[in-house]
Write a structure and sequence with these properties.
The chain is mainly alpha-helical and about 350 residues long. The protein folds into two domains: about 220 residues, Glycerol uptake facilitator protein; about 70 residues, GMP Synthetase, Chain A, domain 3 (2-Layer Sandwich), CATH 3.30.300. It is about 65% helix and about 5% strand. It contains 14 helices and three strands. It has a three-stranded mixed β-sheet, covered by helices on one side. A hairpin with a 2-residue loop joins strand 1 and strand 2. Helix 3 packs parallel to helix 6. The longest helix has about 45 residues.
């Protein structure tokens, strides 16, 4: 069955009659070039406003809306198509548009952040920010699949409308907005992580998109003189960039795994320390040599020195404990018991 599927895919190549429409969708060329660039600029600016304030207000729905509006996928996919064609001028033109778009999003996000009171922006507690500053190999896998899906969708006229779903699956503008937000507030480490996420998605789209266009037979369907040398050089550059990216993401994935494991261990230590004390663990955050412990309840606690000793024994280093307790008071009204 698998052989039949791939044989069918090979036979059902890129439709040459669809090429002019395909090129008009991706490349900003011809008489409508200036109009296309204007549309791209307006949509990207609006998407940046939506995504920036969606991230700051921690609104997932708003951020998803920005993903649909953002047109940044188009020039990236155009770059992949140009590489597949061996069209160096088109690739350079599309890449230039991507670079300008990236710089524009980051700059506008910083400006938009400047008018928001600092107290409303948390670099450590906002999930829309924290979820985008530690990319790993799983993010690369998602981006590769999304890039291939995007190329396949736009390469088939009958399913080209599926590109909106691909835009939701892969995150381009929101990470760049996080870069702008965190840069404005001095979070350079967070900004670097968010930009790495964008870079992961960008390179994955180029690699998967170029491969998918080649598999679909785009180079042969395009009626133009192909430059194989240009295509080969571009593919080698993409492969090298991909290898370097995998190395960096492998390191960040391991670091994320280690932090998650330490968090679980620290929480178990706190639970063991509490024993039968009338408290519930709300949060345990382990950061370097410090541990924040937030408990809910009232009553006698075990000595905090005991917890510090247990932490040091478990992690093999001195750990500073910051313990916070929240009084808990429960009231039921109306009472379910008569006379109360």
């Amino acid at each position: 069955m698998a052989e039949g599927f791939f044989a069918r895919l090979k036979e059902d190549r890129f439709d040459p009659d669809y090429v002019p429409i395909f090129e008009s969708k991706l490349f900003f060329e011809g008489e409508k070039r200036e109009r296309k660039i204007a549309n791209f600029t307006v949509l990207l600016a609006l998407a940046t406003v939506i995504a920036t304030y969606g991230v700051i207000t921690d609104s997932t729905a708003t951020v998803i809306g920005a993903m649909i509006v953002a047109p940044l996928m188009t020039p990236i996919m155009a770059t992949a198509a140009a590489v597949s064609m061996g069209a160096s001028k088109r690739a350079l033109s599309s890449m230039t548009l991507v670079v300008l778009g990236v710089l524009g999003v980051i700059g506008l996000a910083m400006v938009l952040t400047a008018v928001v009171p600092g107290g409303l922006v948390s670099l450590t507690q906002n999930p829309q920010i924290t979820s985008r500053v530690s990319p790993g190999l799983l993010d690369l896998g998602i981006a590769l699949a999304a890039g291939a899906a995007g190329a396949f969708a736009i390469g088939r006229q009958e399913i080209a409308d599926s590109l909106a779903g691909v835009a939701i699956a892969i995150s381009l503008v929101p990470p760049l907005c996080v870069v702008g937000i965190t840069l404005f507030h001095g979070g350079y480490s967070e900004a670097g992580g968010a930009f790495l996420l964008f870079l992961t998605n960008f390179i994955a789209i180029l690699v998967a998109g170029t491969a998918m266009f080649g598999l679909m037979g785009l180079p042969k369907a395009v009626r133009m003189e192909m430059k194989d040398e240009t295509r080969k050089k571009a593919m080698v550059a993409l492969i090298i960039a991909s290898i370097l990216l995998v190395g960096v993401l492998a390191v960040t994935s391991y670091q994320t795994y280690q932090v998650t494991t330490d968090q679980i261990v620290a929480k178990e230590v706190v639970r063991e320390w509490l024993g039968l004390a009338p408290y519930q663990i709300q949060k345990v955050v382990l950061l370097g040599s410090g541990t924040d412990v937030i408990l809910v309840g009232e009553g006698q606690l075990p000595p905090i020195a005991t917890l510090s000793t247990m932490m040091e024994q478990k992690f093999g280093r001195k750990v500073i404990i910051s313990l916070h307790t929240i009084p808990e008071k429960s009231v039921t009204y109306p009472s379910v018991l008569p006379g109360l």
